[in-house]
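Slide 14.
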Amino acid sequence: MASRLAPKPLASCVLEVERKFRTIAVRELTQHGGTPPFRSLSRLPAKTIQDSYYDRSDVLSAAGAWVRNRDGKWQAKLRLGGDFKNSRFEELDDARDIAACVRRLAGIQGTEADCFGLLPMATFSTRREAWVADSEFLIVLDSMDFGHEVGEVELQQVLGGEPMSEVQKKATMEEMDNRIVAFMKRYSWAFAPGHPTGKLMAYFERMRASVP
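Slide 15: predicted structure.
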């Protein structure tokens, strides 16, 4: 009998749109913790994440790209719009795609085996609390081991099969961002006002402050 081979999975990437907030505004985030209540709210198990971020002479960060190893798995995030509070990314998790990205942006020939020719620039652990609200919005609250806290509301869309043009990606992410804005406005009682600081920016601020 001829063997039946499983089909080769299609290469995929993830479009991710996120908006940061300073912290949760209520003592405990629950479905009926404010008005109006969430349509639904599911709490996910808390977990600890170990992140190491890599670059070479800040070439990638200057181009709006980040390469990190999260719990032993490589990821690259390419900024496609927004700013530090409102970010829009294409996320890659295939080592060949990450190597091609580093080669294109930094001119560095590297592989997963040599960390894509990059050097570590930040390493820290994060305790993450997370909830899924209204069946699709991911709310996360991250507490880093260097004493910083920041939250995000995220939407993701996995792309597979036929590639999407840059114009299509931007239009899709614009629509995703509009939905997050409406979500955070509707449930403003859940998110503390104030200017949020991203984890990497906070990390480097703490490192500079610790230098005598």
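Speaker note: The helical segments are 59-62, 95-106, 166-186, 199-210.
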